[in-house]
Amino acid sequence: xxxxxxxxxxxxxxxxxxxxxxxxxxxxxxxxxxxxxxxxxxxxxxxxxxxxxxxxxxxxxxxxxxxxxxxxxxxxxxxxxxxxxxxxxxxxxxxxxxxxxxxxxxxxxxxxxxxxxxxxxxxxxxxxxxxxxxxxxxxxxxxxxxxxxxxxxxxxxxxxxxxxxxxxxxxxxxxxxxxxxxxxxxxxxxxxxxxxxxxxxxxxxxxxxxxxxxxxxxxxxxxxxxxxxxxxxxxxxxxxxxxxxxxxxxxxxxxxxxxxxxxxxxxxxxxxxxxxxxxxxxxxxxxxxxxxxxxxxxxxxxxxxxxxxxxxxxxxxxxxxxxxxxxxxxxxxxxxxxxxxxxxxxxxxxxxxxxxx
Length: 357
Prior knowledge:
By secondary structure, this protein is an alpha/beta fold. The chain is built from 8 helices and 17 strands.
């Protein structure tokens, strides 16, 4: 964590969960009294679809009061709909695989919040499991020591000015350590379960959400190797590349391996992890740099939120575009996913770009 925090005006994004609550503790233990902000988001006015629950507010209020911090609610409901949910629906409609949580960090937590209140503060502190490090005068996003919880992949699309304002007070901890701190300090939410899935959906099923806004668009399901029609799907947006569970076709297992958006056809492969479900080489475009403006030839990468980093060679094809040549076959590579690039030691995060294969 940065050393000159006493000279900084700090805002904490307090969600009501244990991670952001320990952020407040960490700052308070250093004699600081940051202002706390609860961001209210959701795709529409119907509270059924809003994740800003009454319990979240109760927890956030209790933690802020415990450390003598002011708590303010910032309504980013409309901004979330206009920027994040629209992005998600546009990508899904085009047959791509979006990541709403990535865009939430860029557009809401470090974006809309900064426009509304964060611009009055030097630093914005969050409960992300990530670190920062100044190397040769430049601030880098670096990985957490907890490989399971590391969230640099969710932060790899934030802007450079957002990274310069970002503070991750618990990023150097393992998740278990954060829990132990919360229990030791008798925080009200010390044993509260972590939130799962996409925040704004609350308890709503993702497919039900897609159905509500995009409807259904039935089409054929075809076996890739034989061209044999094996069934019908209700809409390409209900399926992701690499998906095995929930396809609902007999004689499986089946894997979703390709979408033909123009013909509205879902291609599947039969068997246990067929070769068609894997790729070693794939193109990436519109790479978003966090700090440096040049990528190494040798690197590691992620395409989803997993503990594993995959080694690869990057073949540069145009400014902001390159082909990833992975050293191993990668399951479930899908267009629209973000490919996050790290150095060979998977320590420094360079940023991310969109897969186009």
